[in-house]
Amino acid sequence: MTVINLDNVSKSYKGIQLFEHATAAFDQGKIHGIVGHNGSGKSVLFKMICGFIHPDAGQITIDPVYRDKRSHFPVNFGIIIDRPGYIGGITGYENLKRLADIQGRITPQEIRQAMTQVDLNPNAEQKVKNYSLGMKQKLALAQAIMEKQEVLILDEPFNALDADSVHSVRELLLAFKKEGKTILLTSHNQEDIDLLCDQVFRIHRYALERVV
Ligand SMILES: Nc1ncnc2c1ncn2[C@@H]1O[C@H](COP(=O)(O)OP(=O)(O)OP(=O)(O)O)[C@@H](O)[C@H]1O
Question: Domain range holding 137?
Fold first, then answer.
């Protein structure tokens, strides 16, 4: 089943063409890797899929299961694109709790579980302003998975993670795939792509070229 479909998508910024008639389908229960050089448009692609920006032409269709009439954005998507702005003066847990309270769907225990899954201590008293880059990355990951989101859109999820954390996040993503979740990720590390991805798309000549 196709979860996200791109049909003839074109996008440019100030005369710089990023996509031209790009077409691709991303399937349920698979891990999809998006590769391409710096500035090729990986983050822009993810922002278009999540409805944050719009293609100049063409269509991006999301399975209606992930649509809600009341929202312009897809629902049940866990997203990491750019580094989110957390509140520095409170702990990681408190940040996630405030975000979780917006939907009011999960318990404190589920927030703690998500933090533990990415090797963050939910009981730590350290404020986010004192977090390292890798810890902020883990917090973003915890946010993306804490509501048990079915589709994960992860731009550079391994960025700044130490070797042990890379290993545990890889295992986590493979476990999510087994559960039937759909994952799109970017990485500049070929090993991540080779180990994790069922399908790989390369941004090449403004299109999404299937390489695996
Ligand atoms: N809001 C914007 N206004 C103007 N140009 C933009 C905007 N957003 C992105 N761009 C440009 O689009 C191009 C693609 O950016 P994008 O962040 O998608 O690249 P990327 O493939 O994710 O790169 P990297 O591998 O370095 O993360 C870049 O040249 C960027 O400057």
Answer: 90-148
